Amino acid sequence: MAKVFYIGDWAVSLGPIFAETPFNYAYKGLETYRYDRYLKEAIESTGVHSCDSCSTWDFYGMEPGRYEEILAEYDVVVFSDVEVKNFQLAPQFFDRNVFGTGIITYPDRVRLTVEAIESGTRAMFMGGWLSFTGEMGKGGWGRSRLAEALPVRCLDTEDLVENTEGFHFDRLDEDFVPGVDMATAPPILGYNRTIARDDAVVHVAVEETGDPLLVTRRHGEGAVLAYMSDPAPHWGCNFIQWDQYAEFWVGSLERILDAG
Q1: Is residue 93 pLDDT above 60, yes or no?
Q2: Domains within the chain, CATH numbers bracketed
Q3: Contact 51/6 with Cβ under 8 angstroms?
Q4: Which member of 13, 68, 156, 217 has the greatest number of CB atoms within 10 A?
Q5: Residue 138: how many CB atoms within 10 A of its CB?
Q6: Is pLDDT above 70 for 25?
């Protein structure tokens, strides 16, 4: 049984302001969204694995020591639409009441993440506008030490590839989730373009372009999965309706758990 901690894919609105992270906002309607529920429910679908989750802004606001506790307690961490600022900044840095009263520092959550993976933690990095390089470079994973652990190399320019007609799965590894018929997967509406590392395994590619879609790699004692599209809307608004969605994600999770 794996314990999974999933960060991201929540959203909240304050009037017309729609926020997915502490740093990015858009004008939309008045609703709260739990896009994380699709992947969370898939992970828990067999009753074997558990999945707790939190919003990106709760990750950003964690007090010192809490993230270290999560890394010690959970077998797998998932990041989806969590731009690098949420790792590198902390609320204390913006508290004017403490400016000039002492030295302000905060545990480096990028370093903590990489070191946890090197020590055996598994990680799953999911795509989106705020993942990998992301929209206008906002994801920023490739300009941080997260790049050391990722099984793909991030582009130096915006990496979003989108099409309203969608893209399809091309299984390159016949041993990857063999019980799942990827030919029946509905089209995804976009993904982050990346370059697979030489020592990584590309299990699934984008049929129309050949770009890597799902890639795994060992890093130290741990293992990392990168899925370059979104497990939730909007890129995944069709994907979540697939009758093998849960099987796909349970199989993907177990692939990195079993990596030895």
Answers
A1: yes
A2: 59-240 (3.40.50.880)
A3: yes
A4: 217
A5: 18
A6: no
* Residue listed under structure tokens 């030895």: 260
Q: Residue 45 has which token pair?
A: 């679908």
In sequence order, what are the residues at sequence separation of 6 or more whose Cβ sits closer than 8 angstroms to the Cβ of residue 136? 158
Strand order in the sheet with 24-27: 24-27, 17-21, 10-14, 33-34
| Token pair listed for 88 | 């590198």
Which amino acid is located at 170 in the chain?
D
Cα separation, 68 vs 109, whole angstroms = 9
DSSP 8-state assignment for residue 208: T
* Helices of type H across 127-174: 146-149
- Listed in sequence order, the residues at least 6 apart from 215 whose beta carbon sits closer than 8 Å to its beta carbon are 151, 152, 194, 196, 197, 200, 201, 202, 203, 225, 226, 228
Least confident of 23-27, 175-179, 244-248, 253-257: 23-27
Hey, how many other C-beta atoms are within 10 angstroms of the C-beta on 175?
9
Q: What is the pLDDT of residue 260?
A: 64
State the Cα–Cα distance between residues 33 and 180, nearest whole angstrom.
Answer: 29
